[in-house]
Design brief:
It is built from 14 helices and no strands. The chain has about 290 residues and is mainly alpha-helical. The chain has one domain: MetI-like fold (Orthogonal Bundle).
């Protein structure tokens, strides 16, 4: 009788339901509360008087927000394309069973073990015109060498791209390499029998058949672009000026520095909407492919 009661008291299905209910409450509840705050004039303290979409109108007339969105597009395109290209190239090298493959993978996986703050500070020191690469070249007598992108408003965004590709290429390499190791050997035999060059086989046969794997990499990289904050703070703090400002930094600044809860909430909701808009085509294509 006691054993039966204990089994009824600790049913796993009830435990799972309670767990998901708690997660849904905090996750979707937070999203709902943020959306509600974006409809108010909340500043330091929440205000529960709804004023409609006034904060969204103010958001899209804010020059800093528009610049941050443009920066995110520039950074996102270069970062995703560059990381995919570099990571897939590394995966191909590893897949060809090069010598010291374990060391090769370790070298390019190492950046993943380093936090984005440490990565940003390291690259900030390396690209510093006074103490970094430029100063090193000058010490070797190459006085004409100039690499001051970090201090130039028109090029600072590209330093973030370089550091981000270095940090994330290893992740793409691992994911793509796992997909490459799952390719059937019969396919490789057919490629060799047809005499197809290796580079053409990867571009026209292998990679097109790994669409879900590559799509997973793109989704992961897109999430990094939208919520990018740590690397920006460590490298440029959004500067020079607002030349490297991003939506995530905009929202955090207005939450805590300018204590404009309403506008910051509107920015956060727009970041969520942007994420859904970017992911929708992929899920729609997957749904159509399966049906």
């Amino acid at each position: 009788m006691t054993t039966w009661l204990n089994r009824q008291a600790f049913r796993p299905d009830i435990t799972v339901v309670i767990f998901f209910a708690i997660v849904a409450l905090f996750f979707y509840g937070s999203i709902g509360w943020t959306f509600y705050m974006s409809l108010t004039r909340s500043t330091l303290l929440p205000s529960y008087e709804i004023v409609g979409f006034e904060q969204y109108v103010q958001l899209f007339t804010n020059h800093r927000w528009l610049v941050s969105c443009l920066n995110m597009v520039i950074f996102g395109v270069l970062y995703i394309v560059g990381t995919l290209a570099f990571g897939m190239l590394l995966a191909v090298f590893a897949d060809r069973q090069i010598k010291a493959e374990s060391l090769f993978r370790t070298i390019f996986l190492y950046p993943l073990a380093v936090s984005l703050i440490v990565t940003g500070l390291s690259w900030r020191w390396l690209l510093d015109p006074v103490n970094g690469l430029q100063a090193l070249m000058h010490s070797f007598g190459w006085e004409s060498f100039v690499f001051d992108w970090l201090t130039r408003p028109d090029r600072a965004i590209y330093t973030l791209v370089i550091a981000s590709i270095w940090h994330s290429a290893g992740l793409v390499m691992v994911i793509v390499l796992a997909g490459l190791r799952g390719i059937d050997n019969d396919l490789w035999k057919a490629i060799r029998m047809e005499g197809i060059p290796i580079w053409r086989a990867y571009l026209q046969v292998i990679f097109p058949g790994m669409r879900p794997v590559i799509a997973s990499c793109v989704i992961l990289l897109m999430s990094e672009v939208i919520r990018g904050y740590d690397l920006i703070i460590a490298m440029t703090k959004g500067g020079p000026g607002i030349s490297t400002e991003m939506p995530a930094k905009f929202a955090v600044d207005f939450y805590f520095a300018r204590v404009n809860l309403g506008l910051a909430s509107a920015a956060s909701i727009m970041m969520l909407v942007l994420s859904l808009v970017l992911l929708a085509p992929y899920f729609l294509s997957e749904f159509r492919r399966r049906t």
